[in-house]
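Title: Prediction job returns without error message
Component: structure pipeline
Severity: low
Priority: P3
Assignee: unassigned

Description:
Job completed but the reporter wants confirmation the result is attached to the right record. Sequence as submitted:
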Amino acid sequence: MNGARAVLCALLICVATLGGVVIAADSPDGASAAEPTVSATDAPLPQTDGESDRLLSIVSEGDTAEYLDPPPGTIDRSGQETVIVDVSSAVGTNSDTIRSEFRQESLVAAFEEATTDAERNDIAADAATRLDERADALIAAERTAIAEYNDGAIGEREFLSRIAAIDRAADRTATTADWLRDDAETHLSDEAQQQVATDAAQLLRLQGPVRERTAAALGGDEPVRVNVDTREEAVVLATVDDGTYVREAVDPTAQTVHIEDRYDDDTVLALSRFQELYPWVDDARSGTSISLFNSDHPPTRIYQFEIPHTQGELMAYLDGGSADIIHETHRLDPESMPATTYEASDNGLALQVNATRGGGPLGIEVVDADTGDDVPATVRVNESEIGTADDGQLWTVSPRGAVTVTASHGGDSVSLETEL
């Protein structure tokens, strides 16, 4: 057994390289699972603009879904990048995936080959320790990437590459957490079980569809343009992918790990809180799916809402302790969202721009000013080439602040400026 454990410990290393990003377990996030659980306060503050003490507040703009966003004037940095294939990132991600799969297979094999409960207990305990170190390391790596981006030390390309790598690593690490919870939990102490639950909950916030799409583009899929907004440790990412506006927002300050679930496993009470935070979505919903994450571990219990509505779908993660949203994802039809239309005409070209908001979808259409026929014009937004408007409306994600849209065709061009 000692030999098997030595091999296992060697395999479950807690330092790994993710496409050039070094992950080291030297900055744990929060307190240990051994700390006492405390009761939640009786009346949570509204997580709404101007009243919340969170980094992100839920914004309501009327006839569209509410969304998490930094309050006005609090954004540390905002920018955009068109993510394209990166061979080194692709190779690094593939290598990390192979190593991770090998470690997981070795862990399961060692556990299944153990002949006594004592041996299985040791293997499970070792795996839980490595999981905790790995989760802390990934959280620290994201925190570092955000801090360096906020400080201007790295740009959008490097930042997106790093968090895409962290997303993939968190997904792989969650496999170990799932295995420990599903197949080995009875071999863990109560303290270790709670720590695994905490790690699993924290890994959730390191993953999202925009990060996943970014990783796919770095690996060779179609390029994707991503808008980035940060406030301290909170991140908002948005893109338009295959005609769908996809947006994810994460606020680590809304996540608790040692506060009792104020809803006590009651999804009806949790839904009431959701309705308070997202009244438009609640009115426009066509269904409701509520699931519990960490249902057996109240201090880290999360209520996951999947809500289809008239403009798309919202997925929101409500922390049972803070009663606030940790993480939300929107998938919206940009044509169904309210927008302001701007128009300009010059050199025989007519430009129409449908603008929603900064960081929201931006629709661009170019036609012949005389005939009204679509023109395959090259479109630039703030000097960045976005694509060709050759088949009706071209959708992209809008930057914040001053926006200049220019369409060019056959040596002619037309431009307009606005503020979002």
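Comment from assignee: result matches the submitted record. The longest strand covers residues 224-231.
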